[in-house]
Amino acid sequence: MPPDYREESDVQLMLRVKAGDRDAFAKLVEKHQRGIFNAAYRYVNDSTGAEDLAQEVFIKVWKARERYEPTAKFTTWLYHIASNLCLNEVRDRARHKIVQVVPGEALEGAGDGGFDRPTKKVRQDEMVEEVRDAIESLPAGQRMAVILDKYQGFTDQEIGDAMGLTVPAVKSLLFRARENLRKRLEKYVKG
Question: Which range of residues forms the domain containing residue 167?
Fold first, then answer.
């Protein structure tokens, strides 16, 4: 029977992982996979890509286990790895100009009476899609900072640690991101 790690902190678990404890690693994965998947999904807006990125994050954690030093919060170290992988993914996609098509989305509501939905619901769906598109349109660094700030609840210091930036640089990045989002979503802010 595997040991019960419920009472151990992330750092304690990672120190066990550093020593080669696969059960402690499984516990860390179980504990953090949803958050890493969610951050990756918000970044790439593709569940398959997000799953791949989340798996890759934990593969990198395992491979880097012997070099791990508990100098910061474990989640900061973990999201630093995730941030780098997501930024690399965006750069790769930009180079290859991948066009994603989700089956059924393009024709949703076409010819099946779907256009009879209440106007409020249509506007709400449109706004959600616009916000998603606006976040996706941000430069890679701004997008990651917004995701870590708004969706993961990181502090400016934690964002800086995860992205390798100073706190003033994070504040500047978030300010520029908010300005870009405000301009892009101006018609929704006014209404």
Answer: 103-191
**Cβ contact 14:74 at 8 Å:** yes
105 pLDDT band, cuts 50/70/90, is very low
**100, 125, 152 - which closes a domain:** 100
Dist. CA 113–CA 104, nearest whole Å: 15
Candidates 75, 88, 90; CA nearest to 36 is 75
Kindly tell me the burial class for residue 43, based on how many C-beta atoms sit within 10 Å of its own C-beta (0-12, 13-18, 19 or more): buried
Same domain for 108 and 85? no
| CATH code of 179's domain | 1.10.10.10
Torsion on CA atoms 119, 121, 122, 123, rounded to nearest 10 = 90
My answer on whether 65 and 110 are in the same domain is no
pTM, full prediction: 0.64
Cα 147 from chain centroid (whole Å): 6
